[in-house]
Amino acid sequence: MDYYRYKAEDFASEDYFKNWVIAPEPESDRFWEEFLKEYPEKYYDVMEGRRLVDGLEAVFETSPETLDSSRRIWGRLERSVKKHPFFHTLQGRFFSWISAACILVAAGFWAYRHYAEEQYRAQTVAETAFDNKIYDNPGADGRLVKLPDGSEVQMDGGSSMEYREEAETREVRLRGGAFFQVVKNAGKPFIVKAGGMKTTVLGTSFRITAYDVDQVVTIEVKSGKVRVSREEEDMRDDAVMVLTPNQKAVFSKASQSFSKDLVDAPLLLQPGENTPETIYIFDDAPVEKIFEAIESQYGIEIIYDRKLMKDCHLKINLEHESLYRKLDVISLALGIAYEKKEGKIVFEKKGCQ
User: CB-hemisphere CA count at 13 Å for 352?
Assistant: First the structure.
């Protein structure tokens, strides 16, 4: 049975699944536990299927205990009435009242049951209105996927993901690697859960690599801003790491901890504007001006001692160079070393030579 492709309503109508929900046994418990371990992305469908089966049982089944209780109540009522001294004279009238009461009770029960059924159907429609979309890319080549909200995902080979859109969020569960180009929607955040890490954005582009065999999960931001945390945590400020363009977060599965760094090959934020030839040719320019140009074009903060370097000027050509090559040339010319630290560039505190 190919349960991997089942939706919630498919599970709810399948006999083996229904029997497990209604009368679980050790064998069926083990089967569905192993199924969810192998396909954790099916968790929502399985849980919704359970709710559908439980709801149907609650609405359409009257338990023996309820029937026995009802019989006992009516038995006590009848015995109590028969002991009354006016029972025989009022017997006909009394049972007319009883008959009328029974009709009213039955009508009330039918109305309540009808109302409960309608409420259940409405709830079921609300719960299943947002179908999960499954996307697989088992081959080695990439696959471009356009999600229902208009966002685009370039899936790496050997990757799979599940997309679910609800009233207030858009959510993806990813296994493998993918680059996301998210359509902005301020009222409906886009959430990606992968490898124990949760990434929340409004509209941006970023890459996540989260293969099961890897010991770390990485997210690299190309544009916009993202917030990352462990999957089970909420989005409190003290539990969140914020990433901006050309920054990345590395999440260790073993230690459940994050570290922030710069991406391996930072890119210009707007490569179509202000070409390197017009920006990175400097003639006796103050270092402050050079650093400002780099910060504005790459979105990366450069930390240095402004007082110690206020008299430093450079005549330098940095065109056609990568970010790190630019920084290496500046470092060599000034005689001041730099390092990458928590997603920033930090020059040591000293003046130029």
Answer: 17
Give φ, ψ of 173 to 5 degrees: -110, 120
Q: What's the residue count for the chain?
A: 353
Distance between CA atoms of residues 345 and 353, nearest Å: 20
DSSP code of residue 339:
E
Per-residue pLDDT of the chain (353 residues; tens, 9 = 90+): 678 778 888 888 888 888 888 888 888 888 887 887 777 667 767 877 887 777 655 444 444 444 454 444 334 434 443 444 444 444 444 444 444 444 444 444 444 444 444 443 433 333 333 468 899 988 888 999 999 999 999 999 999 999 998 878 899 999 999 999 999 988 889 999 999 999 999 778 999 999 999 999 999 999 999 999 988 766 555 568 999 999 999 999 999 889 999 999 999 887 654 444 446 788 889 999 999 999 988 999 999 999 999 889 998 888 888 899 999 999 988 999 999 999 999 999 888 76
Please answer whether residues 272 and 298 qualify as being in contact, where contact means their C-beta atoms are separated by less than 8 angstroms. no
d(CA 353, CA 351): 7
| SS percent in the chain: helix, strand, coil, step 5 | 40, 25, 30
d(CA 178, CA 42): 19
As a whole number of angstroms, the distance between CA 263 and CA 248 comes to 6
Beta bridge partners of 262: 247
Residue 201 β-bridge partners:
190
Q: Where are the beta strands (DSSP E) in the chain?
A: 133-137, 143-146, 152-155, 159-165, 170-181, 190-194, 197-201, 205-210, 216-223, 226-230, 241-243, 247-252, 257-262, 281-286, 302-303, 313-317, 338-341, 344-347
- Quote the CA–CA distance of 190 and 188 in Å, as a whole number: 7
Q: CB 107: neighbour CB atoms within 10 A? A: 10
Q: Dihedral (C-alpha) 113, 114, 119, 121: value to the nearest 10 degrees? A: 110
